[in-house]
């Protein structure tokens, strides 16, 4: 991307996107709503343009072409699975005759190129955006954030050559791990391990690179450090520590200051010295707000056509291949491996595959059938004379002839959580570190490797097809086109069972005179990014259970995100995500079967759990149609390591083995707000209580509040014509409901 921008403008240029202004977006192998710089902002801006309120702007349209299914692809109005080698031709086709939909939205259109595309494709995409009038509107150009914006791959190769030649006396390595993830042709381990260079490693872990350095300086975590940084849009942010360094680590600025002879200068003093132009009051304000006003670079007005012709010629020589291709991609949880030793992230189910604790070789159903490969079967992948053996996983929506393997696994010195987990995909990188590898050989073996997947526990045989079929039959996820919605705004209610009075029950009703808490989840805004899952885990002291327990169906997450394929597994029309947490049923099946009244209904409509009463019969879980209750089969909590006590939320009890647990709408936050309101002799205001999942959601898909407040946001959301209850025909009357998906397909492409 950096080289492509420099080629397009004849100089290094920074850029970022403004999706709030985009009516039509074309994403070319870019997971821009979930991954990379600005993803949180992108998700919020994109979802705001999917709202269907009367005062909302016109609904946007998203086209996605991708080499492997991604969360951004699940949000697309039109999705095209495409081989990596075919993307240059697609970019050329758009440049030669931009799609009518793009031209009709001139000034409000945007084309985004993913990191895996070649530099020439990035250069031509800049020219396309220039021709569409996107510059200064949906894409903003500025001076680059880097002080010295060089070609990273070329710079690393230059360093390796200098190390081999003995031309480096002292090397300081900070926050990177080139011995593990540098392109294999550099053989960085041999280059680094020379007798001349004095090598200092600075990092959170003594990793694979630290192993070959004479000195290791423990790094302070960024939450323990003072510093500053530039955000994706160029704005300057000030960082301050939440706690003192637990292990005596030093930040990078402190290390560099020590190297410059200022060993006794603190990180705060260094930061303050950097920002002497700010008064003390302005400095404190910048710390409070998190950014320095006016420090962002000015927008540039530049002509992106400088390198367009050269880029087009280069792309024209890149012909699609008919051979097997390998797409290497950063992992959605551990990225390039830097987060591999984080148990929360290892156990976080991957978007779409729902796998945990491993990386796999993703294959389309057609490709798997041609190779006679099943799930979990080991496949030898050979590229450039190097081989890796990885377990296969069949994924609908994957392009035929393309295998995807995610980076970040196969670590040797990451820590006890990550060591030995998965396979090292870096060994297969193309020359220069490219993420797309052509001419790959796939050879099935007789061996297999057990994988831990969180979707499919309760199904038999072909569970992938069965779950999607059942989801469609029961209308779990409801969607329509924008045109269908305009004709029938209440389309989501057309699936309700006629003649069935779901309000009837043997249980007496209850009048909620105070608060009545409820929630809605907008499936049209949910990207399935997993932010809510991890936020809930952090807020509610939910333990990590490990791969073996996940394989047994004993994962403990209080929120799961189900994934369904619509329209067949070979070539699904769409992939949808549906977060599932305790529905807080008004007529809760779990409450009637508990022999010790451990699960009870509160006066505010919550389905509470009394841990001290629970004796672990699990009747409630058996009787829950949503399967959102979790049971501590073993002692998953570490009570001995003192640092873990600091990690836990003191407002939430820490459960031991033998009790059932589940979501309670972050009742501790409700109670905190209640205490504050009672002290001030008032009611809890709308928006004063935000659940952890709601607070973390980048697309603002979750709305929570008091249903007895006629003016609350959640009440308005419940009155949305798209609102429906999951499995409402069972008479459970869930307090958590969903807003159906509305997509905006191009009428010219329907069918």
- Terminal-residue CA separation: 35 Å
Principal-axes shape call: globular
Largest sheet: 6 strands, mixed, barrel
Rounded mean pLDDT is: 90
Extended strand count: 31
Identify the strand order in the major beta sheet: 12-17-14-16-15-18
Beta strand %:
15-25%
Helix content: 25-40%
- Alpha-beta content class: alpha/beta
Q: How many H/I helical runs?
A: 25
- Work out the radius of gyration: 27 Å
User: What low-confidence regions span 5 or more consecutive residues with pLDDT below 50?
Assistant: none
Walkthrough of the structure:
The protein has 751 residues and is α/β, with parallel strands linked by helices. The chain contains 25 helices and 31 strands. A 6-stranded mixed β-barrel has the order 12-17-14-16-15-18. A 4-stranded parallel beta sheet has the order 4-3-2-5. The two termini are 35 Å apart.
Key features?
single chain; alpha/beta; six-stranded mixed beta barrel; four-stranded parallel sheet
Question: What is this structure's SSE topology?
Answer:
Elements: H1 2-9, E1 14-17, E2 24-28, H2 39-48, E3 61-66, H3 71-74, E4 78-81, H4 87-96, H5 100-104, E5 109-113, H6 119-131, E6 139-142, H7 152-164, E7 170-174, H8 178-181, H9 188-192, E8 198-203, E9 215-218, E10 227-230, E11 236-239, H10 252-259, H11 267-274, H12 280-289, H13 308-316, E12 324-329, H14 343-347, E13 355-356, E14 361-363, H15 365-371, E15 377-383, E16 386-394, E17 402-406, E18 436-448, E19 452-453, H16 463-473, E20 479-481, H17 482-487, E21 517-522, H18 531-539, H19 547-551, E22 560-566, E23 574-580, H20 589-593, E24 599-601, E25 607-609, H21 619-623, E26 630-631, H22 642-647, E27 660-661, H23 667-679, H24 692-696, E28 702-706, H25 713-718, E29 723-724, E30 736-739, E31 741-743
Parallel strand pairs: 2-3, 2-5, 3-4, 7-8, 8-9, 12-17, 14-16, 20-31, 21-30
Antiparallel strand pairs: 1-6, 10-11, 12-18, 13-19, 14-17, 15-16, 15-18, 21-28, 22-23, 24-25, 26-27, 29-30
